[in-house]
Design a protein that fits this description.
184 residues, alpha+beta, Peptide Deformylase, five-stranded antiparallel β-sheet, three-stranded mixed β-sheet, globular
Length: 184
């Protein structure tokens, strides 16, 4: 499936507020191809030349609803200095989480959100996720913290029609939490 800035559903579309349905596993060929296309979009968006040639906005994650498919599928690709972390998950659920909050110092963004929504988005600093991992082709349970936890929570929120700016405190969008993990 062609995925680019023109085919990504924007937050003004009512579809973005709908709940996504669980996916049958093991994945059908169609669902597996779609999820791998989503992962490829995120990978390619990290390469400035490929991104410019294909009209890709930089991203670390994407959920199926963002391409008009109401299925619980997400793809993530995070490049660190010395490693690349990738996820291609279905039916991801947070099964436990820390009490401690975490947030990105500069706020969050989203492929589906065109307008700026400045503010801190409070999330759990550590989460345990249960999901079907399409890369390993098996059910997995794993724990992540910090930036990876924030990205996973952002994408899992899409399954319930929640957007990052729904989580910005209305009374003080740059509110701070002195006990939180702040990620620059």
């Amino acid at each position: 499936m062609l995925i680019n800035n023109q085919t990504i559903i924007k937050d003004s579309d009512p579809l973005m507020r709908k709940k996504s349905k669980p996916v049958t596993t093991p994945l059908s060929k169609e669902d597996e191809e779609l999820l791998m296309d989503m992962l490829q979009y995120v990978r390619d968006s990290h390469d400035p030349e490929i991104a410019a040639a294909n009209d890709l906005r930089p991203a670390v994650g994407i959920a199926a609803v963002q391409i008009g498919v109401l299925k619980q599928m997400l793809a993530i690709c995070i490049d660190y200095e010395d490693e690349r972390v990738e996820y291609a998950l279905c039916n991801a659920k947070i099964v436990s989480h820390s009490v401690q909050n975490a947030y990105l110092a500069q706020g969050e963004g989203c492929l589906s959100v065109v307008n700026e929504h400045p503010g801190h988005v409070f999330r759990h600093a550590r989460i345990t996720v249960s999901a079907y991992d399409a890369l390993q082709k098996q059910q997995v349970k794993f724990r992540v913290s910090g930036y990876e936890a924030i990205v996973l929570q952002h994408e899992i929120d899409h399954f319930s029609g929640t957007l990052f700016y729904d989580r910005i405190p209305a009374d003080d969008n740059w509110k701070e939490d002195p006990n939180a993990m702040v990620i620059d």
